[in-house]
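Below sits the subject:
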Amino acid sequence: MRLLSTFSLKPGHELAKPIHNEKGKVLIHSGVSLTLKMIERLNDMGITYVYIEDEVTDDIVTEFPITDQVRNQAIHRITDTFDKVKSSNTLQDSFIFDRTGEKMKEVVRKILSDIQRHDRAISLLSDVFTYDDYIFTHSLNVTIYTLALGTELGLHPKKLEELGFGAILHDVGKVQVPREVLFKPGSLSDDEFELIKEHSEAGFNMLRSVPSVPLVAAHCAFQHHERLDGSGYPRGLCDKDIHYYAKILAIADVFDAVTSNRVYRRAMLPHEGLEILYAGAGTKFDLHMIQAFRRSVAVYPNGLSVRLSDGRKGIVSRQNSNISDRPHVRILEENGQSVHSYYELDLSKALNIVITECDTTLAGKT
């Protein structure tokens, strides 16, 4: 299968992976031959990339890092908790969290267990979902990335559970932000941005007095927009004053934000998201953590069309453990000509060759 931009889809392309809504219901099945109307609908739904069937890549597979069952449980728990907070009369209705705290912790444990059994770099492009509310899926995605990074950093299991709990609730304060501001397609005014920024402190105030919520989880909500150089919010904290968990969470939060489709822009590919993080290494984000994150995520997802530094073109076919920026590439073109018989190149061994370009518009071409 090949990864393709929805803007580049043509009638007759056949879906290799189904499209789901956030509750797991299949909206378009795999194997369906797309029509122009379906393609327009995919773009309207905010789907940025899909996998399509292709003869030379039909054995290339992708896997979501957690099971469908765990994913659906997590989305249900996040949605239920956030909805209860939004409909409550006061911000201090801690009973909401007391009732759901243990269930949320159990979901975090299941996510962590799935991630640790998943012995490959994390790619959330592996399955395609369309969402009614970005906050819920962002909370899940950030939790997955955060736990993958925490695992790579060698955190103790109990600390990983605390970290995951903080990650899954880090944006709970956004339920107090007006939807017309939160999902505004254009630029925010200064006043609107100030409203957005209030979600960090609102989340902290919701969580800190709840017995079933670890205090460090409240600080994850409070500090995930702080930056090492003091340029973040809400308190402008600098490196030594920012909680270790919040530094991890900041990386996962930004990466998912830029690699997810939003109302005001389309998603970046993972390698582009990492460039954003590296641009802030040492000033905004911890360099050691970024390097660990790079090992944790699939920089170049399976099915992605790439050009190599020696001019050859191909498709990423599989990942190398702990060297996610040097995958296996199935070579389909060399010297400007299609190869008669494709072959695999392991970039972890061909150290003099690097990926120089990615393309999601080349389906069916070699």
